[in-house]
């Protein structure tokens, strides 16, 4: 029944038997029920949202011209991004983010962006000029227009701004296209979009859609970190890759549009984060709502989460709070984002919290590949002789348990990454010319996938996992002793004047001098071989949990250490220089 | 931009110097120093972009998983990962040395061959798809497909495929395509030869009944013509064509064209453009033997084989032939040949080889002539043969496993290493204990000729006479 409804709109006669009796294949194509002839036509996704979207209307002004040719309707690049943002916001809402995010915050940010970048909500939208040009383009098939930029110029555009990857069909047809020199895009302004020098305008890119999302989440102080957001993107809970397949059928993507909307890599933490800062400054946003100690993003809160996930004793939380308090990184002014304020260092909440835990581990266990094992041996001895009053935390046992899980999960993740399917069913082609080639290739890929899928016995990828904040789970209900949350730190603490202090009297600094982050890009430099293995293991653990490079956590560790030991370090350096004199 | 600016500055500085009278005279003659380009960003931070997972990296990782799985013969796992790798077909830049489509063809073929339950139909379907993937690879894929069909006994299908490939044309033929086409034709010729030989056998069988079928005979001749034309073509090109040469020679010999056959084999063996190929000499030797050719030409064929592959199995025949010769030089060569063969581990336990050596050595010792031959051969081997052939361990094992081998070896050892050598001592002791007659005779023989050992090992220099 459903199928009949789907095929109702298609009432052409079949080319082979001239019957009108259509069915739908699994791939969404029409086939003739009488003679089993399969057409090239696919079912059009009917999206009434799009046509009645008032926001879109404000841009295009008036009714859309529907051209007779196969080029679909007129649309603008920003409309594409608007659709993507909408999809992403809906997905976030489904994940439990408050509805305000989509309808108020993100909507307003986006409107503000369109206005600031003069794309809409202003007297003379930049699109006007674009439109004029595009009309000329479509009406006459001009080959040589002086103001028309060469395609080569377009291709040489720096890609550092965004992730404007080229599609295969795009690259392979480059040579052919340059002959005809027509810059080709399905959207009205796709060709100009990449060309314009938008230094002061902040051009929209695919990774920036996530910057928008993160900014909105941060504004609402939603309990989701950037690393988590990106993980959800990769796990497929938030549309990103191939999101264009949700575009209505009439919005045809081709030519340079592919460069804008087609991504072939996962978003990178740094990039999304930096773009978010840039965006916030570009939009002239005021100071963001305060991050207080009751917020999820506050280091004291995040540390609880990461301590749990790292299977460390709950007692450590007391220590992370003390470190946070001592160096003032729990202060509202430190944590709250003030766009455009260049004097303060911007906070990456998730990395900061992980780094605090690493510093605490260094304070208590030293992590020099020696002292932590010594303490562990003591704890083991004690646990053997005395089973009352809870177990003492054994570093060695913890290491073995966590390393095992980490290795298993890492292997799983690596395999998943290798097994990722990047292409969707909706094939894209740079131009009509290579359409049939692209379709043929696509068909062959599907055939081969089926053939070898059958051989391996696994049909397609397993369904995506349910979204979860935790990647590693440890439960005290397990009786195998693999959970360390309840273990006590007694063995490594001693009482001094009524205060519990660490037995460990020493500390080693990751670096004596910090680099200039603005010049060098990093506060410190991490090379695995230069550091103890225990330290590296801890970094690797958090690097896995946050899906970022260990060096980023290391940077933050160095920053915290320098705040913590600032006075001592200063004295020591002075003393050394005096000695040398 | 930076580098550009820098260059300009340099230029300016040079101009300034030229104008300034205070500058030393020498500097005006020197061209301005051009500094090399610097990267745009001086402090390139180690960016996370290098670690960014993208299409290409994901597929590269996928490929290495496939390779690992294949190395461990985990075909199911390899197939699983290949399912995800095939996507790279859609992003196939043929600029890469080995393109994804080639990878998929090779890996897919390997997997399908090893999954025993995958049907021939499935394989054919895969191959047909691969054929459409690249013009340059078309003939190669066809050939591979044909091999697989042949391995599965589908000779008619293979023949059909070859004919189809032969009629394929695409644009201008490159030199490479030309060669591949020759190969396709040669394999078709081979199949023609196959049906020729089948019909020949039919005819021979019926011939015994005194009944000859004219149509079968005609068909057989037409097969011969088709096969001969194609086979003749391919063996003109320098290469290793053992199979084709053998078949072609068989055809020629059957129809009595021995001159042509001889020419083909001579060309195949002696043309310096062809790669060195021991089989070429083997075929020539076998042909000459069949033809009852003079000893001289046979020996010269084997001599070359000896030079290329001293351990070849024909060396036994060669040695036997040479030992019988009346010429000293040839007998000397025979000794050299058999010694050289026994340098190889493959001959270690070959009774025939050892008996050849034992016979010749014994002959020389008895005649007391040419002891210097043995001495010369032994010279380069005396520091490693004792451990390689004549250890006590081997004596024990040879005695247990093969008495006649230990007999022949003991004879050689006794002469080369004297009566106190480990090998001889052990074997003769065991032999006498078991009261085997020939071992007792052997012991006597060695004892009697013990001085020979001193002479060939150079222990009594004065007694060595040419």
UniProtKB/TrEMBL annotation, chain A:
Q: What's a Gene Ontology MF term here? A: zinc ion binding
Main location, first listed in the record: nucleus
Q: Which residues form the Rrn7/TAF1B N-terminal cyclin domain?
A: 81-248
Domain (Rrn7/TAF1B C-terminal cyclin): residue spans on this chain: 265-455
The UniProt keyword set, sorted, is: DNA-binding, Metal-binding, Nucleus, Transcription, Transcription regulation, Zinc, Zinc-finger
- Tell me where on the tree of life, at the top rank, the source sits: Eukaryota
Q: What InterPro entries does this protein's entry cite?
A: Rrn7_cyclin_C, Rrn7_cyclin_N, TAF1B/Rrn7, TF_Rrn7_Zf
Q: Where is the RRN7-type domain?
A: 9-40
Q: Name one GO cellular component term.
A: RNA polymerase I core factor complex
- Cellular localization per UniProt: Nucleus, Nucleolus
Cite a single GO BP annotation: nucleolar large rRNA transcription by RNA polymerase I
Q: Which family does it belong to?
A: Belongs to the RRN7/TAF1B family.
Record's protein name: TATA box-binding protein-associated factor RNA polymerase I subunit B
Automatic annotation (TrEMBL), chain B:
Give me the ranges of the annotated region Disordered: 1-31
Q: Which GO terms describe its biological process?
A: transcription by RNA polymerase I
Q: Which domain of life is it from?
A: Eukaryota
Q: Which GO terms describe its cellular component?
A: RNA polymerase I transcription regulator complex
Bias category Acidic residues: which stretches? 1-13
* PANTHER family, per database record: TATA BOX-BINDING PROTEIN ASSOCIATED FACTOR RNA POLYMERASE I SUBUNIT A (PTHR32122), TATA BOX-BINDING PROTEIN-ASSOCIATED FACTOR RNA POLYMERASE I SUBUNIT A (PTHR32122:SF1)
Q: What is this protein called?
A: TATA box-binding protein-associated factor RNA polymerase I subunit A
The organism named in the record is Lepidothrix coronata (blue-crowned manakin)
Organism taxonomic ancestry: Eukaryota, Metazoa, Chordata, Craniata, Vertebrata
Record gene name: TAF1A
